[in-house]
Amino acid sequence: MRTQFAADVQEGLDKKQRTLPSKYFYDKIGDELFVKIMHSDEYYLTKAEFEIFSQQTKELFEAFGADDITFDLIELGAGDGTKTIELLRSIPTEQFVYKPVDISANALNKLEKRVKSEVPGIQVSPLEADYFQALRSIHGERKKVVLFLGSNLGNMQDEDASTFMKELGNNLAKGDMVLLGLDLKKPSDIVLPAYNDSSGYTKDFNLNLLHRINVELGANFNLEFWEHAPEYDAVNGMAKSYLKSTVEQSVSIPSIGKSYDFKEGEVIHTEISRKYDEQVLENVLTGTSLKITRFFYDSKEYFTDVLLEKQ
Prior knowledge:
311 residues; alpha/beta; Rossmann fold; 2 domains
């Protein structure tokens, strides 16, 4: 894993517009910081999706079309499970098997314990694998309902998101369903604070990526010379996070045998968070085998969970 980490860091920093992969935010420190972000006043995404799950669970379950069969409820990247547990409470426990998927055994163990504690009697079958490996490993005739929540698709460029949705559809059978969480386009005064909270959790989350490179790859990033720099284009709906060098500096990374010079004001791109509307979603789904069947919105229409069916 560390070898791949080093290769990905080198690949990103060798580019003219330097980048670092957002998936490496999530070490132990990053996981804890992201939980704090989700509970911050400014971060509306989790609250909006939680509202959908807590107030429209009956409608969601009915829309799954699985009221008289046993089915697999498969969650890709389940996180701490807070939102999902609201949905699980509304479904008869004997009717489904909950299969959370993650590459982190530690995250899965914590989630399994929490789910069994808060929803007694539930069948939980964790899968430690990447998403498509997990889907290919699930055999049988039961219907699949796949959860891909929390605007995770928004962390992909549109072309990558379309490729992902095509592959997801290819790993499902006709009639299987996907519940897809998407953040919607909104004005900057709502979106930007969600990525630059007043408590500084998002700043620490972004800077922790440099700390991780220091610890795991022996680099000498001085975090005092870097700042969190988010931006948002309300027209195209693209939020981006950057790390900005506040001075002219040189950073060495011994494990890859390279040094990098940064100008004052130079940025490293770390994350995108795409905000959707129906046209963007239709473009992403073009050429896939997944068809939109229904939208579920929170009361402010900040967020939507879209139900898709494999054709």
